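We modelled the chain as a single entity of 263 amino acids. Its sequence is:
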Amino acid sequence: MPYGFILAGWSDLRRVIARADIILEVLDARNPPGTRSRRLERMVEEMGRELIIVLNKADLVPRSIVEDWASLFRDQGYRVVYIAATKHWGTKILRRTIKEAAPALPAVVGVTGYPKTGKSSIINALKGRHSASTSPVPGSPGYTRHVQLYRVEKNILMIDTPGVIPVEGSELEKIIRGRSPEQLEDPVPPAIELIKYIQKHVPYAFRQAYGVKSKEPLRILEEIAVKRGWYYKKTHEPLIEEAARTIIRDYHRGKIPFYLKPG
């Protein structure tokens, strides 16, 4: 699958690590194991840099759950901070942790993560004003395309990487994070898999998000299309492709209740 249009290669990420003193690995707090890169972590360790795991979008997860994830990573020997970058929650703690981890000040920090985990939002939150381009949907306008260095305060500089980590996880994660919904040739199959995955962990998620009654994925798409008035012009059948794109968008935007528990 061609990800090159938005993703950095591993050689690019290695150059970023080489320029930095500290690397932030930004994980989605709703699904830390699915957005974690062991390969990145090994590279950071091999190159002698400090790593901080940042659990972003923590406002979408019960605090007890995100604290359990943080404890799990700390038990593995990592520095961990949880944060809600778009709401500026946890930014002071992250700043303090960066300074504590720095071998010397001023420190250069590289921000890495899978698509749409919120690395540019973290730069914005730390700097205190909107400076790095952000967008909640993969591949859409606002995506960071060039290496940039931001001074977030006197003793902290941040590198915004030219893309994000190539997705190593499941095929579903590769599809929904690797391309925008509009660029998917057929969004229905990944949307159905996403529905099944979410329902496995939060059975009521789609009833809560959309008010649909069905639990069957295809019927959920049909119900959403009908509720929104989306129909094919010729056949007047529900336009399930648009409903599928909506579900993928809403997942990235945190509009569908979902999170994994440790263990």
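As a brief sanity check on the tokenised model: The CA atoms of residues 26 and 54 lie 5 Å apart. Residues 184-252 form one domain.
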